[in-house]
Amino acid sequence: MGKVYNNPATGHIFVEGSGGETRWSSEFPPVNLLPEADWVDTSLSVAFPDFSKFVNYSHNRWFNPPSWPGTGPWRPSTSQDTCVSLTMIEPENRVLGPTTIGTIPAGANYIDVRVRLNRTKAPYNFRDQGVPPLIPNEWVSLPGGSCLVEATEIWRRSFDIVLTGNEVQLIRRQSVIDPGPEPTTGTPPQRNGWLPRSGAGSDPWGQSSYQGWGWISGNNFAGTYRKGHPAALIQHKPPSANGGLGGDTPQYGGKHPRRFNACSINNSAHDFSSTYTGQIVIRPGYLRA
Nearest Cα to 52, choosing from 202, 154, 172? Predict the structure, then answer.
């Protein structure tokens, strides 16, 4: 059974239920809730848009000259190249709304918020892993009106139910962490300010070997750094000589983004938007100081 007790350290009186939960305490101001006729009981949709995205591209080439006589960058050889294309998510801190859900009687200055939401649109897998919703599909109370619904290594999504005047409003928030300055060592995808130059008059399929990442503008490397996080694989083509064309056509370098065997840069399938739909019940009241 429950109990009533005094906390000697603070002097406050507490009323506990049989499960140890606080039913009432003098520590907080009392609230007078209004009757059910004044409640807001309505459907709720909490939609988060897709993130700002771009495409990163890796081109890795190994130049291996032929053993037989020949000249020029167009001569056939046993050289090979490979490519990888990724969807990148840009950093952001976005506030969406407010959107009015309903109104409560004038003078009411407190709302008790309860929701039941089901995720009806999930984001695309982040790095091949599903993104679980953090709110269960059952009735939950939201003290303070705030709720975190998604969290990954790089992004957070949440919403707030707030009282502005006598309007109950929905505010959505989504943020993507800033990755910081461009790395200066190694060849991670985040080091994407690279613009490949070969040894044959800056020809992208000339006589040179290189490896690096760059982000795509149009159908070529932009050549500048752009902040982002690798989020999903678009395509990978393993090493090969791109051979069989004959004549003066080079049999390597074909996976450069401007060439005939390039990896795809179409990331339209990578939609990271999400939507939660369900019901919300707002019980308004008067908070006495």
Answer: 154
What is the pTM (predicted TM-score) of this model? 0.81
Look up tokens 């080439």; give the residue: 61
CB 18 within 8 A of CB 28: no
Would you tell me how many other CB atoms lie within 10 Å of the CB of residue 6? 11
Q: Which of 138, 132, 122, 169 is nearest to 152 (CA)?
A: 132
The confidence score (pLDDT) of residue 201 equals: 41
| The two three-digit tokens of residue 11, written as one number | 């002097």
d(C-alpha 201, C-alpha 206), whole Å: 8
Strands (E), 165-264: 167-176, 210-217, 220-221, 229-240
Residue with tokens 């995808």: 189
| Residue-wise pLDDT tens digits, 152-193 | 999 999 999 999 999 999 999 999 999 999 988 888 899 988
Calculate the average pLDDT of the chain. Answer: 85
* Tally of CB atoms within 10 A around 152: 19
Instruction: Give the model confidence (pLDDT) of 83-128 as tens digits.
Output: 999 999 999 999 999 999 999 999 899 999 999 999 999 999 999 9
Which amino acid is present at 271? D
Q: Which of helix, strand or coil describes residue 186?
A: coil
Here the contacts of 98-101 (C-beta below 8 Å, separation 24 or greater) are 98/162, 98/164, 98/169, 98/170, 98/171, 99/169, 99/170, 99/171, 100/167, 100/168, 100/169, 100/170, 101/40, 101/42, 101/44, 101/161, 101/168, 101/169, 101/170, 101/280, 101/282
Here the tokens at position 186 are 């190694």
pLDDT at position 199, please? Answer: 40
